[in-house]
Amino acid sequence: MGILLATLISLILYVIGAAVAAVTSSVPTGRVMKFAFGLFIFGFIVMAVINYFTMPAITIPNMLVINLITAIVLIPALVAMLKPKNNFMEKKLFIPLFSIFGLGLLLFIAVIITSFTVLDNAHNTITVNEEAEAKPLSKDETPITVAPEFARNKIQKAMSVVPNAQFYDLGKLQVQQVGDEIVYVAPVEFADFWKFVRGKETAGYFTISATNVNAQPTFEEEPMEYTNSSYFHKYVKRVIYNKFPQYIQSGEAQIEVDDDGKPWYVQTIYKPMHITNKLNLDKLQVVVIDPVTGEMKAYQTDEAPDFIEGSVSSDIATLTNDYYGKYIHGWLNSVFGKRDVKLPNKSGTESGVTPMFDENGDMFYFTDMTSPKENIDSALGYTLVNARTGDLTYYGGEKNNGIMDSEGAKQIVNKEFPEKKWEGYMPVLYNVDGNPTWVVNVLDPNGLHKQYAYIKANDSDFVVFGDTANAALDAYRMALLQDPGNTGATGDTVTETVQGTVSRVVINSTEQGQIIQFLLEDDTTIYTVNASKAPLAIFLEQGDNIEAEAQLLDNGTATIEVMEIEGLTE
């Protein structure tokens, strides 16, 4: 239905031109209509074939361009076929026909101008929240995901378990939460047209943990006919287009799995702003299609079935960041004054953004924002776009001013291992105990995971590497404690008053100074204090009574900010 409708609309300008020719030409009207109808049938067939493969959304800009092209080709052909008095065109046809082309061209120019002027309105459709700081990182609440390059590499090595594996290639990876685990889901797709003709359906999909670098992929046999790699009437995008031709499809449909393990294809669609193709977040929907039957249903993105994490696509998130950062004071300001303009970096894993999850299991798209000024490699802040609502939260604040951006974080990792050619991937900015921190995956040239890097965002020399996310986080926290220049973050983390009798004490000397660690009676928490913060702590002994202000971390440890020792301090 969509292709038929698009084809009919594509010939409107030609039909108007043919009608004008029939009325104004000295050639008999019957002869004009005969040739015009023949060309209409020819143009309809050609445009039907073109629209079948290109699937242009039925929007004013798209249809206007197609109408101009078909009219420019078909109307001169009609005039040439009439051949009045052996001339190419009668003079009295010249003005009306060229007036039609001129009108079409003027409309096209109007659409272009409107495309710029509506950017202010498009920016206003974004729901924006601004926060000074992000919540402090908890490794249980904010899992560090495995880089998709590494996950894809592992799944590729397991393709041999797929029946008739020679028919298939690995499709797009999509991260989602299945049960209590965050995983990558990747469908197997047809390798080419002939494999589609022979295979008729794909074999299923892989899952692999997105938080455990040692996990192995699992293959689930779930035959699918309607896929991204199918052809003709079983191509997912074409199936959706035929039912929703007036909507623009954002990016490639992605696969998500429900609680029963059944896969579904999910595609974000939207109606554009006014007479343009610009994103309108007020008209955002998601189509959920059954890959077995082809049945589909459209939802508002925040009303999609609960198992769908990414009803807002990564492409939409990227456009949202662009509109928010560039057009905060309108299009003219984005070109000339550039007051408060912020540009999103493109360091993410999906369309320039990186998916991540919060403590409630909700998915967001992360990206950092930088200045439009050249040769500036510092971040102004970062955004999280809700993957179900499209709402954008911007984290700026004093602590995020002047920190390095994601490209700078990757370059630090790249320069650390030049001989091994290890590189940084998927940088994400976290708040680790009040310190803005870049967490970067380190992969080798073959896409194999090697380490995690924790980089203090406002100090390019403060880098800690670890083989696992937890080990790297613990080492990073210890390094923060040992750094006498680190001011701590008592206003950003939970601080409690603790008191008791010391049962064990250890003093370690480091390059940054002396570190005192101790236990209290009937308390297994390991308390750590830097001698630069509490100089008298170096005289701490078993049996001393203390009272302290401690930041309790999530790994059974705590850091001391202020401490009083009975008999030594007042």
From TrEMBL:
<keyword id="KW-0472">Membrane</keyword>
<feature type="transmembrane region" description="Helical">
    <location>
        <begin position="94"/>
        <end position="119"/>
    </location>
</feature>
<feature type="transmembrane region" description="Helical">
    <location>
        <begin position="35"/>
        <end position="54"/>
    </location>
</feature>
<keyword id="KW-1133">Transmembrane helix</keyword>
<protein>
    <recommendedName>
        <fullName>DNA-binding protein</fullName>
    </recommendedName>
</protein>
<feature type="transmembrane region" description="Helical">
    <location>
        <begin position="6"/>
        <end position="23"/>
    </location>
</feature>
<keyword id="KW-0812">Transmembrane</keyword>
<feature type="transmembrane region" description="Helical">
    <location>
        <begin position="60"/>
        <end position="82"/>
    </location>
</feature>
